[in-house]
Design brief:
Length: 177
């Protein structure tokens, strides 16, 4: 899962979310030639990697001790730093410190706001892009999930969705006469 509750909270959800972001980035990157495609794509691929240590996948999804104490953002940044050190040792030359810092920043800032658990706010174009694409995919997944899960067929509105801070209008407005 990509989360315990809010978005993509089902088996395969993390993979679906990651692939969605990669596809979105490939659509958006050509519009922004000053943004590094390599950093964005690697940042997307790794931004939620720590969720594999943060969440359990049993009868229900819950947080591991590591997830509670460290969290997926910090865990992913640690893993990236460790792998960069291993690559440097194997290659016999240092990993570019600016690239490593930029990649760790994307991971650390991808939630975009302190109140959403981001240790830092986005400060590079690549980090902003990953944050907004991540947020777009998560929010739309919650919108469609709220519609799919709604049982009140007599109402045009879903119940309140706390993560969206809204109710969702259910009718397809493009098909209304």
């Amino acid at each position: 899962p990509a989360a315990r509750t809010n978005h993509h909270a089902y088996l395969g959800g993390l993979l679906e979310h990651t692939l969605n972001l990669l596809e979105l980035a490939l659509l958006v990157l050509p519009r922004y030639p000053d943004v590094s495609p390599d950093l964005v794509l690697v940042g997307i691929f790794l931004h939620d990697a720590g969720k594999t240590a943060e969440l359990t996948c049993g009868a229900s999804f819950d947080y591991t001790d590591e997830g509670q104490l460290v969290g997926h953002i910090v865990q992913a940044a640690i893993w990236v730093h460790e792998r960069a050190s291993q690559a440097a040792a194997k290659l016999g030359r240092p990993f570019d410190p600016h690239v490593l810092m930029a990649l760790k920043h994307i991971i650390i800032a991808h939630h975009g706001r302190y109140e959403f658990g981001s240790p830092k706010l986005p400060a590079t174009a690549e980090a902003f892009m990953v944050h907004y694409l991540d947020n777009l995919d998560a929010k739309l997944n919650m919108v469609f999930g709220a519609i799919d899960d709604d049982v009140d067929e007599g109402s045009d509105w879903t119940k309140w969705v706390p993560a969206l801070e809204s109710r969702v209008y259910k009718p397809d407005v493009t098909r209304r006469s």
